[in-house]
Amino acid sequence: MNRHVNLATLTSEQLVERFADIGVAQDDALLGNEISRYNALYKDKVAVEVELRSRPGDQRRLLMTLYDHPNMQVRLNAAKSTRAIDMRQARALLEQIAASKWGPQAGDAGMSLWAMDEGITVIDAHLPPKGED
């Protein structure tokens, strides 16, 4: 994956594809216990989110098309990235992932649900405030 692509030159659909590719690579990094690689990929994922959010109408909603992706990490990333767009659907997917007991994604989903239930607003915490993208 080329990390030096100017995301602003990609279509929203290309960004969604890139987001999915990042999730698959993150899953691979987790399986290989490659934490530094996972962290670098996390930064790439956030950059895609920021770019999608900066587009008219907050194009992160397109990430909901990944709710049925075959890779659990991609689905987890999509659910967490779209909570601000549709809390109900994102929560339903997080509940499904948590119930699967497929680790480590199930644990991550469970923690996200706990935070939601406790009123901890971590949604978009890793993104700059709107207008400062």
From TrEMBL:
Q: Which SUPFAM superfamilies does the protein's record reference?
A: ARM repeat
DUF2019 domain spans which residues? 13-117
Q: Which Pfam families match?
A: DUF2019
Q: Which domain of life is it from?
A: Bacteria
According to UniProt, the name of this protein is DUF2019 domain-containing protein
Query: What organism is recorded for this protein?
Result: Nitratireductor thuwali
